[in-house]
Structures are given as structure tokens and as C-alpha cells.
Amino acid sequence: MKIKIDENLPTELAELLRADGHDVHTVYDENIAGTDDAHLFRVATTEERMLITQDLDFSDVRQYKPGTHPGIVLVRLNDPSRIEVMARFSSSDLRTELTTWSKCFVVISDHKIRVRRA
Known about the structure:
Elements: E1 2-5, H1 11-19, E2 23-26, H2 37-46, E3 50-53, E4 72-75, H3 82-89, H4 92-98, E5 105-108, E6 113-116
């Protein structure tokens, strides 16, 4: 799966997902950290990459309707620290499910994963 990791997530997440065989780019890899959300979304969509972010600006499913983009995964943890994000993604079940989320809007919280499909 092609994935783009936003700047508000640890770079170690990219390494973890690459180890699972995913094609992962980060905004740091592409020197677009700090870019506005519209530009980031265009880049991810043009590259056909699922965007993984903690940015609530991507939470409006009316604007980012499932099926109209490669996929958005919004990470919403009570403690969004690097350690907690990596702990949540350390679940191989979560990373296996990731491959089924193409074109979906997904919210990952501490104890739940909500998937809105096209």
C-alpha cells in the first residue's frame, strides 16, 4: 500500500510500515513539512497515497468523502505522544487491517477503529 505520513506523527511509524512492505513517504522525505492541508491532500491524492495524520482539519467527512481519495487515517489518541502512537501501531492486527482501508476514512482511537467506506 502507498502511504504518506504527516509531520505530526513519528518518523518511526514510516519505518514500521515499511518493514511490513508498504511504500511509505513522509512529509519530511519530500521537504513539504509545514505545507498547508490543501497542498498536502493534493500531493497525497496525486501520488495515490493514503494519508495518515493527527490533523483534525482532515476530520470533515463531507469535505473528504470516502471513495473520493486514496484514504485518510486520522489518529486520535488521548495521549498522542510518539511512544503511544508507536504502541498503538505495534499491533500487527491494526497494520494488517490497514491494507483494507483504501479509499476509506478511518479514525483510530485508543480502543477503537472506526472505518467509513465509500
